[in-house]
Write a structure and sequence with these properties.
The chain contains three helices and six strands; from the N terminus they run H-E-E-E-H-E-E-E-H. It is α+β, with helices and mostly antiparallel strands. A hairpin with an 8-residue loop joins strand 5 and strand 6.
Amino acid sequence: MKKWKSNLFPVITLAMCLGLAACGGGRKPLEITVVNRTTYPVEDIRIRETDGKDWGENRLETTLAEGESTKIDLGKYTVEELDRGFQVQFYGEDEKPVNPNYDPDTATILENGSFLIFTPPDVSVPVFVDSAYDAVVCDKKLWSSML
């Protein structure tokens, strides 16, 4: 009888661990901060997984003026989904792309807590991701890339 009980404990423990793993234990939250440095108001931001078919809804509640930022909760993703990246579309008040040179099919790798920074149309890199954001440092990077 004792042997039966001692064998049952590891089986129950293993079953509980597998059950917890199946309940989304491998999914990580993804919240980013979007920063508008385009020199234009941004009214519409849509973000999807790289292999997604639908752009979904506008992620902004109000227009994002030049210099403003906002946090966006994108949900939870597996490591594999995060590694594939995301695609981003952003439009101005006229419903046209803020940066006509930007290709929304480009994969952008996002991490929880990262900053997605939209740059002015005359900068060669229209969107970049950073782990921190400081307006003064960002201005130096932007101006040096325009020279």
